[in-house]
């Protein structure tokens, strides 16, 4: 049997999902090499900070939309049948105010989104049930992922399939080929997220951070909720989601482009908490304001936003095949299996070309 030596550079949701999908082919001998691994909390490592839920943002006929569509069946399966993955179903209530859109959602018409027939229990809220100032709203069932459980679960699935994990920091993407546990790799999969902006051989200046600040609390609203904007500024948003298996509730948030600040801003934290209690008073005991919130921690993550959407493509750099899978902005989980499937296809194509070149 031909053995394909592959290094996956990066152990966020993109790297781990790609490694997991690649590891299902016994010919692939995989090392995941990364500066940060599940269990770490760092501003250069986005994945642990995510909510994370499934709420498509890509237009129906875009690559994004397709990747999100292709990811839903797997997330549904995990929520339904694999409790140890740390994913559960939650009812989602979207509240929309068409005048104040924060600018990150483009899933086609918001009144008639393409995913209405895909996600369970989708229904528009009748006009006479809308809160004052709300233009339209809908409910559906989606999933919420406890990243603290899910990322280690992915590591476990990979290890079961023989993937080797190691810490490594590379300056140039091609150097990652030497991080393989069995000799120089045939191919590198680049899943370095926002760091692809500075990584040698990639230096993608179309990447920028979209800073997301959150407050994680013990209170439980009992459902997920998101509004399309808020009165506190175009780069602030309102959402809450309760993670599976005791992971607490994430209160968000912000979507601050080009903002690299790793520290939680205390005034923004107060605005986030106030907005969430306003949207969902039952989050706290009756008569209480934000003092009724029981805070676990404040957090900041930098979404790896890329101007023209994620880069999932192959490239030969200095004689080494590289498959890129980075730049997933605020939708890295909900597009993870779709993007990984495309990346696996590109890996197979590149390896075939390499074999042909040998003949
Ligand atoms: P990362 O998680 O940043 O991983 C990058 C990896 O590359 C790390 O292991 C790092 O150490 C490694 N690396 C980088 N450079 C090097 C180097 N030179 N050498 C070695 N290793 C290197 N998405 C959703 O789908 N749903 C949500 O509800 C959602 N909510 C979010 C809420 C917040 C507050 C935030 C911040 C994000 C949210 N996201 C959500 C977005 C999602 O978290 C990201 O899209 C995703 O985590 C990106 O993952 P990644 O694996 O590409 O990058």
UniProtKB/TrEMBL annotation:
Its cofactor is FAD. Its EC number is 1.4.3.3. GO terms for biological process: D-amino acid catabolic process. It is found in: Peroxisome matrix. GO terms for molecular function: D-amino-acid oxidase activity; FAD binding. Coiled coil: none annotated. Its main location: other. Keywords: FAD, Flavoprotein, Oxidoreductase, Peroxisome. InterPro entries: D-amino_acid_oxidase_CS, DAO, FAD-dep_OxRdtase. It catalyses: a D-alpha-amino acid + O2 + H2O = a 2-oxocarboxylate + H2O2 + NH4(+). D-dopa binds at residue 330. Signal peptide: none annotated. It is an enzyme of class 1 (oxidoreductase). PANTHER family: D-AMINO ACID OXIDASE, D-AMINO ACID OXIDASE (AFU_ORTHOLOGUE AFUA_5G11290). Belongs to the DAMOX/DASOX family. This is D-amino-acid oxidase. It comes from Elaphomyces granulatus.
